[in-house]
Specification:
- The chain is an alpha+beta fold and 137 residues long.
- Helices cover 43% and strands 20% of the residues.
- The protein is built from three helices and five strands; from the N terminus they run E-E-E-E-H-E-H-H.
- Strand 1 and strand 2 form a beta hairpin.
Length: 137
């Protein structure tokens, strides 16, 4: 049986409140759990009081092999129970393939428009040049 330290939602609609629980990984999110080891109230204004953890029990469950979810791991890292390795995703801000394709098309259209403008500027000057040559002869 694989154990997870995860959040179980409680509270009313649009007023979330979470319990930090130890549960079987196959159990439903808000369903059966083994033990409650803390709470998380995101609605509290005081950031220090949002998360409460029973440290001894959390350490016990970690020692017997329970795996915390990413959010719970963040809470444990802030509480000094477990260290969370920093993550790096250098491609996070890059646009997707379709957006890159649209940007490339847009850039090509802009380049074509500028080339047409330059050509339009140069065309009248080219037409005037032979007329000036004919007048000077």
């Amino acid at each position: 049986m694989s154990l997870k330290l995860r959040l179980a939602r409680a509270g009313a609609k649009k007023r979330p409140y979470y319990h930090i629980v130890v549960a079987d990984a196959r159990a439903p999110r808000d369903g059966r759990f083994i033990e409650r080891v803390g709470t998380y109230d995101p609605m509290l204004a005081d950031k220090d009081k949002r998360v409460t953890i029973v440290t001894e029990r959390a350490q016990h469950w970690l020692s017997v092999g329970a795996q915390p979810t990413d959010r719970v791991l963040r809470f444990f890292d802030a509480a000094g129970i477990l260290n969370r390795a920093p993550r790096s995703n250098p491609t996070k801000g890059e646009p997707g393939a379709k957006a890159k394709e649209r940007a490339e098309t847009r850039a090509q259209a802009e380049a074509d428009r500028k080339a047409a403008e330059e050509e339009a500027k140069n065309a009248p000057a080219a037409e005037e040049a032979p007329a000036e040559e004919a007048a000077s002869e």
